[in-house]
Amino acid sequence: MSTEPRTLAGYVVELVDRLDAGDPAAGRRLRRVVAGRRARIQVGDEAVVVDFSDGQLRVMDAGTCRERVDGDGVTDRATVIDLLDARTDVTACILNGRIQVRGAWHDVADMFLAIEIVLDATPRVPALRRLAREYRDQVRPLLTAERLRGTAAGGYRWPPHAVDDTERALLSSLGLLPPGGDGGTSP
Amino acid sequence: MIAYDPLRPPSVFDPSAAAYKEWLHLNLFDHGNAVVGVVNVSLHGDPRSPQALSVLAVLIHRTGHGWVGGAEVHGPDETRMGTSMITVPDGAFAVDHAAGAVFADARLTDLGVSVRLEARAVGPSRAIERPVPIGGGWLSWYVVPRLTVTGHVQVGDERHALANATAYHDHNWGRWHWGDDVAWDWATFHATQDDLTVVFARSCDRARTRLGRAWLLVRSPEGERRFPASSVEVESDAWVAGRAHRIPGAMAALHQDRSRPLMPTRFRLAARHAGDRVELEFAAESVGQIINADPVKRGYGFIHELAGRFTARGVLSDRAFEVDGLGIVERVD
After folding, report:
1. What is the pLDDT of residue A160?
2. For B79-121, how does the pLDDT look when each residue is reduced to its tens digit (9 = 90+)?
3. Structural domain containing residue B295
4. What is the pLDDT of residue A146?
5. Residues near B292 by beta carbon (within 8 Å), at least 6 away in sequence
6. Does A83 sit within 8 Å of B253, measured CB to CB?
């Protein structure tokens, strides 16, 4: 039996295989949602490019892949563990920059929908639950307590980066600035 | 000694086995340290199915700090059921009815909490074996309203030895699917002094437009009083869409729309019957949310735990009382 830690590419392949085996309808829904598009996924220092070609998952090394991508999601292992352990939530992670997603709005929305399809299937697919546990068991020892700090109790910075007046006006008109709205901490 | 109350897994002939739910539950009230705790180990789905889930949840609320804790989900291969005991890799929950004792041991150290509790019943247990209809299914329960408890709670690196602590224990079992029109309100309040305990429950629909009959039990040194449903008034107000501590994390990520549940911060109970009366007001401090996924159907149940303090006054068996203490209100939808 191999004791080699699974790579990000290995987790993506396993995740789709186990989803297909445990909840074929969810696997088909996943393919429909992301059909014809390609995404780059980076977790820590590992990055892959993924797509479905004729329904078959392709996982490519992001360092050598030269194909166009439609969306790009970046996070780190500590954030994934903090989310799984309920130390923080998705909104806080996006607002404080621990999750960064780039792409056209409809591509970004569909990337999140793809994640939702997998999360939604997890309670009914034991093999996916085992994969999540394997990930936590593999990654947790690599993270220091300091990195597992979470942000749920401490609020978040919003906006997470400097914005110009035009962007601030747009956010304000959409009601997306917290009271004060100047980059302070929101509860 | 408390009444014998075994676990009730479905038989192999039970056509509703896939909808099986059962749990052992303990609420902790550490009056000395102003700590409220929830320890719950639950079973979801036919235990013979590989899809079945067991969930160990530990939530600890400290005044001024809010809720901490988490939940670990396990499969049937990692879960053992005894006559009145459930064990999972990170904890165990057992009831010794002959000794009137409840034991809970949970070590969710990666999630920052662990507890070791040994509770002894102060008074008798109550069994409500007649199934209460909820959604398209039913729910039965068994309750020990008040126990004394020793042990410790650990949050991060801080270990609290319990000081003047009491506990509430219940055991629920039934058939329903999370995501169906299943909801209830439940609460228990433990006075710091005077051994006064209040337990309230009622089923309802998720929209709370159809309310079931209120069940109110008040236990004091003079004995127990069940107030008729028609004598019980319930009021909730000061609703706030506050940020909740939500577990398990993967389910919280899936249901981002439920991250700020609208919950009451004040809860009032009043009942008057045959010379006895009680008026209680509870102020919630913060909300914990346990998200239960159904292992068979695509559906979710949201259990909100509101921890806080209460004051109560009234008359029981011609004796006036006025007390305060710790309480917990649970709203499920």
Report:
1. 62
2. 999 999 999 999 999 999 999 999 999 999 888 899 999 999 9
3. 22-332
4. 47
5. B42, B44, B55, B178, B300, B301, B302, B303
6. yes
Instruction: For A10-28, give one letter per residue: b (16+ CB within 10 A) or e.
Output: ebbbbbbebbbebbeebbe
Section A138-142 average pLDDT: 88
**CATH code, domain carrying B244:** 2.40.370.10
pLDDT per residue over A45-75, tens digit each?
A: 999 999 999 999 999 999 999 999 999 999 9
| CA distances for A18 relative to A30, A146, B250, B255, B297, angstroms | 13, 33, 17, 22, 18
pLDDT band at A183 (very low <50, low <70, confident <90, very high): very low
Q: What is the pLDDT of residues B124-157, one digit of tens each?
A: 999 987 899 998 999 999 999 999 999 999 999 9
Report helix, strand or coil for A118: helix
DSSP string, B231-281: GEEEEEEEEEE---EEESHHHHHHTGGGSS-EEEEEEEEEEEETTEEEEEE
d(CA B121, CA B100): 5
Of B51, B110, B259, the CB nearest to A85: B110
A84–chain B Cβ distance below 8 A for any pair: yes
Q: With a cut of 80, say whether residue A187 has pLDDT above it.
A: no
Query: Is B238's pLDDT higher than 50?
Result: yes
Q: Name residues whose C-beta falls within 8 Å of residue B264's C-beta, 6 or more positions apart in sequence.
A: B236, B237, B238, B239, B240, B284, B306, B329
Q: How many domains does the structure of chain B reveal? A: 1
B178 with B300: CB under 8 angstroms? yes
Assess if residue B12 is contained within a domain. no
Considering the domain boundaries, does residue B36 fall inside one? yes
* Most A CBs within 10 Å, among B74, B256, B290, to test the A interface: B256
Closest residue on chain A to B49 (Cα): A126
Residue B47 maps to a domain? yes
Tokens of B1: 């000694």
Residue A98 has pLDDT above 50, yes or no: yes
Mean pLDDT across B294-318: 95
Asked if residues B198 and B174 have their Cβ atoms less than 8 Å apart, the reply is no
Residue A91 pLDDT > 90, yes or no?
no
Q: Does A129 touch chain B if contact means CB atoms closer than 8 Å?
A: yes
Distance from the Cα of A60 to chain B's closest Cα (Å) equals: 26
Looking at CA atoms only, how far is residue A112 from chain B in angstroms? 10
Query: Which domains are seen in chain A, by residue range?
Result: 8-148+157-181 (3.30.1050.10)
Does any domain span residue B10? no
